[in-house]
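FAQ: What does the model actually see?

It sees only this:
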Amino acid sequence: MRIKKHPILGELEPGRIVKVEIDDKPVDAFEGEPIAGALIANGINVFRYTKKHKQPRGIFCAIGLCTDCIMMVDGVAVRTCVTGVREGMKITTMYKT
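And it is asked to produce this:
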């Protein structure tokens, strides 16, 4: 499943296929698509775990208002639902179990 029309980002045309890393594993994604969409398309639905109770979180609002989809990208915490993929990103799950 790919996100084709995003309520904030608008129409999303697939870019060229690029490689990113999620927790040190290579993943193919379309350049410019939301990171969250690329992860879901690759079967990755848990983006972080809550700090206190270690509960899994994934995409919730998909428009950048909540923090459920936050992941570390190249060492910076970002909302993956509104951040576009670029070649070579290193994406890390936060608060792993």
